[in-house]
């Protein structure tokens, strides 16, 4: 019996992934390779909904590809592609756009939030239709499941609606995807504001996987805790301490309960220091592997093109079926 197909993507919008990306999603990408037929992609087309520097986008795309390989994505076991190298994403997106109501697109909360920050008049049409491209990404590969957080759930519902709408109007082509909720996913908070999710938009509390080791160590040493002295897990009353315990647990392999027992009677400084140590023990070999991959950019580009070729085989089958159903000349 074939494995269910799962699809997920990440944007190349920074020089480094951070530990929130790793523990919240990418660690599960690696694990899912044993249980699913995985298609993973660098979402460079999504990245241009806001202004980008072309050279920086190209460098970050290559860098992101190397980082995913270094984290454990196996390019032989999974399909790892760059979105813009598979033109069928844009082809299917146009068809899905013609099936999407303006009201549906306007109701997407992420568009409302992002447009509100910069002003609706300056928001691009691409930002509005971003969820439709996301739907095309998923439907193109006939994905059975899509790992989603709460912020993406509405987009997956649109994808499901569009798949059902197309199938009902033209005949069955698309697999209707399900949400894949990973219950044990760690939610990593900002080290300086532990009530907010870690994000590259708040660099002082964000631990980037490619930051200098001393920078990472310093960020943990200055992590915000509280005025108590007892190390215990309580996300409401002790968000900073709880966040450090969560991070330590994820990288050390010890449960939070084991850590609380081990730190009994000890100070917050010990927790910060030891959490930094377990994170650095992961980061150091990871950084070495990324650097090694980036020394041979032509080999990395070959892997990218191989991933695109494998993706195009699947994507073109879907496009052929869609074109036949919709009435385009073949």
Number of domains: 2
- The tally of strands reads 5
CATH architecture type of the largest domain: 3-Layer(aba) Sandwich
**Strand order in the sheet with the most strands:** 1-2-3
What are its keywords?
Rossmann fold, 5 strands, mainly alpha, 7% strand, 330 residues, 2 domains, two-stranded parallel sheet, three-stranded parallel beta sheet, single chain
Give a structural overview:
With 330 residues, the chain is mostly helical. Helices cover 55% and strands 7% of the residues. The chain has helices at 19-32, 44-47, 54-71, 88-97, 102-106, 109-118, 125-140, 153-170, 213-221, 239-252, 256-262, 268-294, 297-326, and strands at residues 5-10, 37-42, 79-82, 145-147, 178-180. It starts with a strand and ends with a helix.
Entry summary:
This protein is mainly alpha-helical and 330 residues long.
Topology readout:
Layout: E1 5-10, H1 19-32, E2 37-42, H2 44-47, H3 54-71, E3 79-82, H4 88-97, H5 102-106, H6 109-118, H7 125-140, E4 145-147, H8 153-170, E5 178-180, H9 213-221, H10 239-252, H11 256-262, H12 268-294, H13 297-326
Parallel strand pairs: 1-2, 2-3, 4-5
């Amino acid at each position: 019996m074939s494995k269910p197909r799962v699809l997920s993507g990440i944007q190349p919008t920074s020089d480094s992934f951070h530990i929130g990306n790793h523990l919240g999603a990418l660690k599960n990408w690696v694990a899912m390779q044993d249980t699913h037929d995985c298609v993973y992609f660098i979402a460079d087309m999504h990245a241009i909904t806001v202004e980008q520097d072309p050279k920086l986008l190209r460098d970050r795309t290559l860098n992101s590809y190397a980082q995913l390989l270094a984290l454990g994505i196996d390019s032989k076991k999974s399909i790892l592609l760059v979105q813009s190298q598979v033109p069928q994403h844009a082809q299917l997106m146009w068809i899905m756009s013609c099936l999407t109501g303006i009201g549906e697109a306007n109701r997407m909360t992420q568009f409302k939030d992002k447009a509100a920050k910069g002003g609706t008049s300056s928001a691009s049409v691409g930002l509005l239709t971003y969820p439709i491209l996301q739907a095309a990404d998923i439907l193109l590969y006939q994905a059975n499941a899509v790992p989603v957080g709460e912020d993406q759930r509405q987009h997956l519902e649109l994808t499901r609606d569009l798949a059902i709408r197309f199938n009902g109007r033209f005949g069955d082509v698309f697999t209707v995807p399900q949400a894949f909720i990973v219950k044990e996913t760690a939610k990593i908070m900002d080290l300086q504001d532990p009530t907010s999710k870690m994000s590259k938009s708040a660099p002082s509390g964000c631990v980037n996987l490619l930051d200098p080791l001393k920078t990472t160590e310093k960020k943990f040493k200055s992590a915000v805790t509280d005025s108590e002295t007892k190390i215990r897990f309580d996300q409401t009353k002790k968000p900073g301490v709880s966040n450090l315990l969560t991070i330590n647990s994820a990288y050390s392999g010890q449960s939070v309960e084991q850590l609380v027992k081990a730190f009994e009677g000890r100070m917050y400084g010990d927790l910060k220091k030891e959490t930094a140590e377990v994170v650095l023990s992961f980061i150091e070999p990871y950084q070495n592997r990324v650097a090694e991959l980036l020394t041979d950019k032509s080999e990395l580009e070959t892997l990218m093109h191989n991933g695109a070729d494998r993706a195009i085989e699947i994507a073109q089958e879907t496009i052929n079926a869609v074109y036949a159903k919709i009435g385009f000349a073949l």
